[in-house]
Write a structure and sequence with these properties.
This protein is an alpha/beta fold. It is built from 15 helices and 18 strands. The radius of gyration is 23 Å and the shape is globular. The relative contact order is 0.17.
Length: 452
């Protein structure tokens, strides 16, 4: 009961008269809620001549020298090549970019994630310190909204040492994040730090930037990965009469300055390692980097406590061809003008669960609309509407809610998945006296967060 009372108190504080973080941007153009598959029949956006010639030339030279490359290698070059990669040169996120994420649509999304972190912190006994670690923070909007929640609950966190740790490889995005979170007041390459940049938020919380999750200091942490795993390189495999073959990227012999997909003539090392004997699908996508990161997160949580929350579009081991590109909120041919579009594939949550290797408990995936409803999005929307006297803001709040919750938009396309210590979900020993140990409280979001 004490825990539930504390939760009610923190929600009451957050759901008070405070207005929006900012005037919401105008109604977004109708954009796909979950980026549809390249095989779903969508028409890619037409590309103007002469675009991305530097990256394409680089890839053509590479393919002529080495022969076909895996889809994973192609994605890695197109997205993170230091000179011409999409994430290293472009911001990409937001209404003026190539795609819009949930935090960009509504402040409520980030607020509820902040409440989730606080709820889990309370449920595990209010440790004296915790790190909030976000993987691929985009423009920093999600962290900014969470920091506002932490500031509104400053009295609750007064005895807790909170710090923010952002894992970001893009110099362009890290600049945008620094501007949003600190006003641009950061120190680059701090001495005796594994971080490549550090600063202090506008509310006084220390913030650090890293290029790899392994550089983040150990300790009790909440790890957030919102639309992060979908952008990691995938291997694609096709079942044939001769067995499994890997899908590769090669030069189109009929159009020498264009690329095409081909099948490997024989089995590849990836085919041997990543295709399970019990696989029933004819086409499979596997993301080994996602598996490695999940293993690292599971080891950290097992050792230091905390939790990981993954929010992404994906499936539970049932989909096949989901590889697609996005540019200016429209489908984009994944092999055309590499380096100018976001490349992405649905997250296989069954693979993430397997790669946790039992080191942690897992919850989900559950639909975004279920998670947000359990977190109290309806009540938060009511409060914001009651405090809004501007018709345009009122309309935007309703539009944003619809984008997040409508099953045909983001509501059913995005999923939440969590890693937690096994003891977090443990039930008390029935042989013990009932009063000797209270049961673990339910995990917010994956069960209803009781407000009444």
């Amino acid at each position: 009961m004490v825990l539930l009372a504390a939760r009610r108190a923190l929600l009451a504080a957050l759901l008070g008269p405070a207005g929006p973080r900012r005037l919401p941007h105008p109604l977004l153009p109708t954009a796909p809620a979950a980026r549809p598959s390249s095989g779903a029949g969508g028409q890619p956006e037409a590309e103007g001549p002469g675009r991305a010639t530097a990256m394409l030339r680089h890839l053509l030279l590479k393919l002529r020298a080495t022969g076909p490359v895996t889809v994973a290698e192609y994605m890695r070059e197109a997205l993170t090549n230091p000179g011409q990669g999409y994430y290293t040169r472009r911001a990409g996120v937001g209404e003026s970019g190539d795609f819009v994420t949930s935090p960009e649509i509504s402040q409520v999304f980030g607020e509820l994630i902040g409440i989730w972190c606080i709820s889990e912190w309370i449920a595990t006994g209010k440790p004296k310190a915790f790190q909030l670690v976000e993987l691929g923070p985009g423009r920093g909007t999600l962290t900014d909204d969470i920091l506002r929640v932490f500031n509104q609950l400053a009295s609750l966190l007064s005895k807790c040492d909170v710090s923010i740790h952002l894992v970001e490889v893009s110099p362009k995005l890290s600049e945008i994040q620094a501007l949003m979170l600190t006003g641009g007041k950061v120190q680059s390459n701090p001495e005796d730090e594994s971080a490549y940049m550090k600063g202090v938020s506008k509310t006084g919380v220390p913030i650090f930037w890293y290029r790899d999750i392994q550089d983040v200091p150990p300790g009790y942490s909440f790890y957030l990965a919102h639309e992060f795993f979908d952008a990691l390189p995938i291997h694609k495999f096709q079942r044939t009469e001769k067995g499994w073959r890997e899908v590769l990227v090669d030069i189109d012999p009929e159009v020498p300055d264009q690329l095409r997909f081909v099948l490997s003539p024989s089995s590849t090392p990836a085919t041997e390692n990543f295709i399970q004997p019990e696989e029933t699908r004819d086409h499979v996508e596997v993301c080994p980097e996602a598996g490695v990161i999940i293993q690292r997160l599971a080891c950290r949580i097992e050792k230091d406590g905390g939790a990981a929350l993954v929010a992404d579009y994906g499936h539970d081991g049932i989909k096949t061809d989901t590889f697609r590109g996005f540019r200016n909120h429209k489908l984009h041919d994944v092999l055309r003008a590499p380096g100018t579009a976001d490349l992405t594939a649905d997250v296989d949550f069954s693979y993430l669960r397997k790669m946790a290797q039992g080191r942690t408990a897992t919850l989900g995936p559950i639909k975004q609309r279920e998670f947000l409803k359990n977190m109290g999005i309806d009540l938060r929307l009511q409060v914001l509407l009651q405090n809004s006297r501007d018709p345009a803001t009122h309309e935007q709040l309703l539009h944003s809610y619809d984008m997040l919750m409508n099953p045909k938009k983001m509501g059913d396309c995005f999923n939440f998945f969590a890693l937690l210590p096994h003891h977090r979900l443990a039930h008390p020993d029935k042989k013990q006296k009932p009063e000797s140990k209270s049961p673990s409280p339910p995990v917010a979001g994956f069960g209803e967060l009781l407000l009444k």
